[in-house]
Amino acid sequence: MLERVIPLVQQRNARLALPPVPQPLASTGLLSDSRGRPLRDLRISVTDRCNFRCNYCMPKEVFDKDHAYLQHHALLSFEEISRLARLFLAHGVRKIRLTGGEPLLRKNLEKLIAQLAQLRTVDGTAPDITLTTNGSLLARKARALKDAGLNRVTVSLDGLDDAVFRRMNDVDFPVAQVLAGIEAAHAAGLSGIKVNMVVKRGTNDQQIVPMARHFRGSGVTLRFIEFMDVGATNGWRMDEVLPSAELLTRLQAELPLVPLAPSAPGETAARWGWANSAGVHDSALGEIGLISSVTQAFCGDCNRARLSTEGQLFLCLFAGQGYDLRSLLRGGADDTAIASAIAAIWQGRSDRYSELRSTLAADAGPGLRRVEMSYIGG
Ligand code: SAM
Ligand code: SF4
Ligand code: SF4
Q: Using N-to-C axis directions, what is the helix angle for 162-169 and 175-187, rounded to 10°?
């Protein structure tokens, strides 16, 4: 038991040294990394806890009652998160995604959203604030979230068959309650609702077509995500990955789809539109997204930074360590010093794990062990 828990905590505690900043670096909104990639998207994990135990993310055997979750004082406060978000926006961030763990488990999350909604991008516009949730508490909270200023929501749902879904969330949670959460999000006026389905070959791939039929024409965009080798505990195996190309072939055998142009640079999902009988995209039927993180790396224009629950900045979903911004916040650093540190960190970024995946050892030892997705957020 101890052997399984300690490495996760040790890994979390490992930090990268903050780069030296000999003189202040201005926030121009034009920051780019060593590969010329701008900083546009900030994902903030607001809790490392979750009420689900999806086996691809927080397997029950590892995240059991003995698992050491973060103590409340270790978490960034809403004020600390808002302050960092403001500094990130000044560097060019336009979109803020709240995630976790299960973000709706963080008490009064709507208060954080209200604070973030007051901030402005370098263009003077409000940031696009989104949330990724397992949907379990959404029916109860959708209205308050919308009223606080949430723009969009993404709900994770891995199948429509109750038995399959209950097995995958591993806490016996029913599909109907997640669907009720999606309905409530609609009713509250949240737009651009997306549903994320992680596909594992042999586990829920028989749910692909029923999910597609269910959400086609519903106003919800269904996105299929390849099962990823995130973290170090989910027992990832390549033979359980269903490549998006194969998934597309399976869907097209049932229903016509046509490729759509990306709507924004750095977009994670390839877009496909439902077509009418003439083979033309029918906007009333909507679209799907294919997130091919394993089979088609999209590091080339990756513009995402991740802030962990306790304020570490991660430059890649597959990074082993982050930069400790909380020590700056709590050590009394002023805005210029923190903004300069963020700039120096991003300027030094060269991460492109998915492009290099096949050439890297799956587990290169404890020093390079990857941090869990429930800790840095998806
Ligand atoms: N608890 C929330 C949820 O499930 O939506 C937010 C956090 S969760 C880590 C964010 C997203 O990551 C979810 O859509 C989830 O399905 C996805 N995810 C988690 N582990 C994954 C894996 N091994 N491969 C692909 N996607 C994964
Ligand atoms: Fe929880 Fe989301 Fe991870 Fe599932 S994917 S265990 S819901 S954090
Ligand atoms: Fe971005 Fe890292 Fe994913 Fe590549 S592997 S797309 S750099 S998060």
A: 90
What residues flank ligand 1, with Cβ below 6 Å? Answer: 50, 56-57, 99-100, 102, 132-134, 156, 196, 198, 225, 227-228, 230, 234, 373-374, 377-378
The CATH number linked to 170 is 3.20.20.70
Q: Report pLDDT digits (tens) over 29-75.
A: 999 999 999 999 999 999 999 999 999 999 999 999 999 999 999 99
Domain of 355 in residue numbering reads as: 8-16+31-376
Please report, as a single letter, which amino acid is at residue 33.
Answer: D
* CA–CA gap between residue 361 and residue 90 (Å, rounded): 37
Report CA(205)–ligand 2 centroid distance (Å): 19
**Pairing mode of beta strands 304-307, 312-314:** antiparallel
Å from CA of 319 to ligand 3 middle: 9
User: Per DSSP, what are the bridge partners of residue 132?
Assistant: 154
Is the CB of residue 151 less than 8 Å from the CB of residue 96?
no
C-alpha angle 138/144/146, rounded to 5°?
85
* CA nearest to 245, candidates 270, 265, 279, 275: 270
Residue 67: beta bridge partners?
A: none
* Per-residue pLDDT reduced to its tens digit, 248-298: 999 999 999 999 999 888 889 999 999 999 999 999 999 999 999 999 888
**H or E stretch covering 86:** helix 78-90
Indicate which ligand has the atom closest to the C-alpha of 352: 3
Residue 1 domain-assigned (yes or no): no
- For residue 290, being part of any structural domain is answered with yes
Residue 23 lies in a domain: no
The answer to the question of residue 295 being in a domain is yes
Domain count of the fold of the chain: 1
